[in-house]
Specification:
Blueprint lengths: L1 H30 L4 H59 L12 H6 L2 H21 L9 H24 L4 H26 L4 H31 L3 H17 L1
Helix pairs in contact: 1-5, 1-6, 2-4, 2-5, 2-7, 2-8, 4-5, 4-6, 4-7, 5-6, 5-8
């Protein structure tokens, strides 16, 4: 029992640590004057790091634990669930939640880009990452430094870019920071809950859920992060993404 509590707290702390990047990014995005190209460059680097982590950490480990069928099915299911959820929040105002350059031009735009839809979309983006942190501790596992680093690096530009966009649309700093602090706290709780409630499942089911999280993360990268990265860095987006991928790969091998 004491070990369960200790590992749940460990998942909570690591989930909270990655959430700090959201809060820090939102603070800097709201109060600083970082160029949109800089934000997009960090977004591209974070995309590459996440792609590397899910390839060499999540999918590979899911395969070793559960086999090809469980991993493949979970991977597709996760992508489908995320894509459906993303479709609905996008239709209600969260389509451009990672865009720092978006400015409302009329009432219709304001309706399509409201604060709570953006917050819900950001939470949906973060849930698969939170699940990964908690699931990695099951059956004697350990949280990967590569995964932690990749999530942290990708969370920073997410908070930064979205907050910059909210500021340009006249949102108060109190509202913006409240949104991101809340998302960070919920993400931390999701990490702890993933370990606490899923620890007794069959290892193949855990592998399938891990693969589902990986599929959701991949769908999130393509749907929300890469478009923002390419919007400003254009022909250099691919190069920066490759550097992020290689950096995470080197960290894994070290």
């Amino acid at each position: 029992m004491s070990q369960t509590i200790a590992l749940s707290l460990k998942a909570l702390c690591w989930g909270g640590f990655t959430g700090i990047a959201l809060i820090a990014g939102s603070f800097i995005g709201y109060f600083s004057q970082l160029s949109q190209r800089t934000v997009a460059g960090v977004m591209a680097f974070g995309s590459g790091a996440l792609l590397s982590a899910l390839s060499f950490e999540l999918v590979e480990k899911a395969y070793l634990k559960g086999g090809l069928l469980s991993t493949g099915c979970g991977f597709i299911v996760g992508a489908v669930i995320y894509s459906v959820a993303n479709y609905f929040v996008s239709r209600h105002g969260a389509k451009h939640r990672k865009r720092s350059s978006l400015v409302h031009r009329n009432k219709a735009d304001e309706f399509r880009n409201n604060d709570w839809s953006i917050a819900l979309g950001a939470l949906i983006d973060g849930i698969p990452e939170s699940l990964v942190l908690g699931l990695s501790l099951i059956k004697g596992g350990a949280i990967s430094l590569v995964m932690i680093s990749a999530i942290f690096v990708s969370n920073f530009p997410e908070g930064l870019s979205s907050s910059a966009g909210m500021k340009k649309n006249g949102k108060s700093w109190k509202l913006v920071l409240t949104i991101w602090v809340s998302i960070a706290l919920i993400s931390a709780l999701c990490s702890a809950a993933a370990y606490l409630f899923l620890q007794n499942l069959d290892i193949r089911i855990v592998a399938m859920i891990t693969a589902s999280a990986a599929g959701a993360i991949l769908a999130m990268i393509v749907d929300t992060m890469i478009p923002e990265a390419f919007a400003e860095t254009h022909n250099f987006a691919g190069l920066i993404t490759v550097i992020g991928f290689l950096s995470a790969y080197i960290l894994d091998k070290m």
